[in-house]
Amino acid sequence: MENYYDLSCLGSEYLEFIKNNKECQLPIDYSTVKMSEHLKNYHVPLQSVPILMDKELADEFAQASKKVLELVSYIPERIFGYDAEKLKSFYGYKRDDIVQACAASNGFYKPAIARNDFILTNTGLKALELNCSTTLGGWNLPFFFSMYRNELPVSRFFEQHADEYEFAVRNTIRCFARFIADEVTKYAHQLGIDGHFNMAMVGNEQLTDVAKQREKLVFSVFEEEVAKKGLTGKIIPVINELTPLNLEGDVLYAGEHRVHVVITTNAKNVCSELLHAFSNNNLIWPDNPLCFAYNNKLNFALLHEYKNSVHFSDAEREAIDKYIPLCWELKNANIDVDGQSVPMSEYLRSEKDNLVIKDATGKQGDDVFIGRTMTDEQWIAAIDTALQQKSWLVQKFCESVPFTAQSGDCGLKDYDIILGTFTLGDGYGGTQSRMKEKGNSDGVINAAKGAKEGMIIEVSKR
Questions:
Q1: What pLDDT does residue 317 have?
Q2: What are the two backbone dihedrals, phi and then psi, of residue 218, each rounded to the nearest 5 degrees?
Q3: Fewer CB atoms inside 10 A, N or C side of the chain?
Q4: End-to-end CA, the chain
Q5: Cα–Cα distances in Å, from 241 out to 203, 254, 455?
Q6: Amino acid 122: pLDDT
Q7: pTM
Q8: Backbone phi, then psi, for 167, in 5-degree steps?
Q9: In order of start, what are the domains of the chain with their CATH numbers?
């Protein structure tokens, strides 16, 4: 791949259309667009030029994302043996009851909701980090598809090819609802589910009016999708003490309703009753506390450290080399580089322009330092700071192939892109993008740092 327009059979023609139509080089004018209330105050600026990707290639991205989640999910068992003390020591769990519940569950229900952040290089996809949570960014972006398909200037390109090609997006929230229905069917006998189930959404704050609109939409999509599976499902909001969780034996209840599925928004919402039911394998909990371990960026260093051990098969070793950039835990020690033992301090200085260091537990692009964007003095200071702390990762720098898209008041520029690919169990929840103009930033591409979000539209022959 040389650029993002290579992702589709229509790519070259699409790029020419963007270049030859000035209207496509303007930012989105929301005053001219029809949209639902819950979208009007969307918190991230959107790129007016979407990415086109052939459906067959999107399916390949889905398999890559699933494989990376699968590899990381093996680590607590294969490397740490679900040993509570080892898990606590390496990952830094602060609550003993949480890590003990993870160990006691013995992987009965592994987290299955993830967004892999990939970068597309000229040698293929490379995974920069894995995020397991139900609070990930990008969930609502597919609801803007109608705007791109029917109202923005770029929609004329889609109309010109509508007889021969179909243009579509994967609705992540619909995919999530299907995933929950599939999980309920899979575990129905063990959890005593006979056609109806209850899902508790555990939070700790009241919703704003806009958030209530968004929640209403999510609930309606959820009902539609589970009905297609011949199920009925009730969503029970659990906020603070308003709807207390309680136990009857080893089974969790919200008020008078037995809870079969739980979604939580952060660790502060995890009560002892919830942990007890989980450790006794009585819950479907896709964002359970093993997510805290999965989210640690040092997992990628562990995969490389142990890839040649008995813990991994030849096929898994191949996947690690294919998708995971070389990386190491940052510490004062020697590391293996191409079969040679090299002092890490020496390697960091000599390979500055080819390396990134990042806080292994950082979020929203904080504490990420890209060597090639820094002076030697800044790089050394960042290394010294990281060495004084714990849990930092050294990762090979991966350069994005360019994507030419709208910039400024009117015009086009090349962008670097992060691809957020959603994996929901064995299923695929679509891919969204975040982007920043090439050479116009510190290299950190995150919505919290000013990146735009972009839609990826799949192309298939009719």
A1: 97
A2: -60, -45
A3: C
A4: 25
A5: 10, 11, 39
A6: 92
A7: 0.93
A8: -120, 130
A9: 4-61+132-171+427-461 (no CATH), 172-293 (3.40.50), 326-396 (no CATH)
